[in-house]
Amino acid sequence: MPFRLSMIFFSIFMILRQTFPANPYLEISRRFEENDPACSSVMNLFIRDVRNDSRCEIIIQNNYRIAVFEISPEKKSLNQIQQIRLSPVGLGQSPHYFCLGRLEPDEKDSLLIMTSQALYKMNMSLPGDDVATSPEKIMECHPTYPTETAGTRISHLDFALDLDGDGYDELLLPGEDGFSIYRKNRKGISEIAAPGVKANESVSFQADPSHVYYWNSRSVILEISGSGESGLKSLIYHPVSSGEKGKDAIHIYHARAPLSFQSEPDQEIAFVKRSSPEAYNSFQMILDIDRDGYMDVMSGESNFDILSPLTILRFYKAPSVKKVILEKPDQEIRLKDADGIFYFDDYSGDGYLDFCLVTFDYNPSSTDDVVEFFVNNNTRYRLDFHYYDPKTSRYSSIPNASHPIRIKHSAYIHGGTRDLINLKGDFNGDGRKDVMALTNGDRGEIYLRNPKGIERKPYCGFNAHNALALDICDVDGNGKDDIVLMSVKEKTLSVYLFR
User: Fold this and answer.
1) Predicted model pTM
2) Three-class DSSP labels, 103-119
3) Which of 135, 303, 382, 454 has fewest C-beta within 10 Å?
4) Could you please report the per-residue DSSP string of 41-70?
5) Cα–Cα distance between 119 and 96 in angstroms, integer?
């Protein structure tokens, strides 16, 4: 009888374990006091390997206060290991910008501060380090700022970037005639010749194929694109306003090792824009779609009309020649979507760039959809994946895979739709990009990707804590991405380490 009872209890235990599986992550949280400077609506969250030991620290910046936190999985704790209070008076004239960078081989991360007169470096002093903690002026400079702001605040701006993939950063400082590139070594700081910006021309800055952000100055936008596994980057110049109506002359300069650029463009694209009368939102990306070493152009537009939604994507394939005029798109895809929120990445695993469109899946003439939106407070989306076919050199006009997602209206405390859905994390370490969605103000969900698409059932859920800031990266270096979020409302810093 005891044996039978033990078998019955064991069977019940196994059933419960399969029905309610354990979370695949370790949650570590830290609560802050009411008046802690970290709990500010203007805070910035950064995840960096400050110690250069393949394990990341968390950095929270609120104006001139910067706090560094160490993640301790063994003790299940987040410990503040440094707090920096910068003095705006001692840093010269306003405005001030900062970023984190590693300027020399085997160097740990430093805090870099750019003012209108000089560039400062401040070592991140951690327990066990024997380094100076006061700012050190490393060079005089007079940059042209992206925006003219008052000196009462310090803003984040990425002006330290690894252009040649050697593991440490170059300095990109904006000026009236374009960008100046500098690198630091033991002998000092030397300037690297960069292509100059011509009249009415700008430089754009592309961090990765799935996201583009722009660094604006008086006449300059910088865009940088990766150019293969070597880690070398490419500078992409295009005009702020076209000299010829409807035509953009895009100039592309590839970096060479050791880091240098030619004076003449490696590729020059004369791109003729097209737009529809109903277009409300237009966008453009420079991508090497077919991986032939030559940049192509994708332009698109959306009408922001949920009653008659329309997004048009036009793909212009550049031939393998130095100069080309792109007038007619090689492919045009018309999609029933109003917003035009999309991501580019290799979702099929064949080495080519695919795209995912976040479609607002709502029919205003459907009673069920109206009830879903207004009564149940749900916004329904659909992730539509369109794969690139190298045999036809075209994208599939119909989705190769789709995945529905419902998002509660309360989730929009996190930001817009682009902030609620993230496709860059690999949470189980299988090499495929999974889906993270903030489906409510206090809940997030992970959906794994398999060879056939996205699994319908969530891999796990987690407490989103009404987060103001969220980032995804491999914090502990185990090959699986983790989630770090900061909630000002709940005064909580949380880390989800996927095991």
Assistant:
1) 0.84
2) CCCCCCCEEEEECCCEE
3) 382
4) TT-EEEEE-TTSSS--EEEEEETTEEEEEE
5) 10
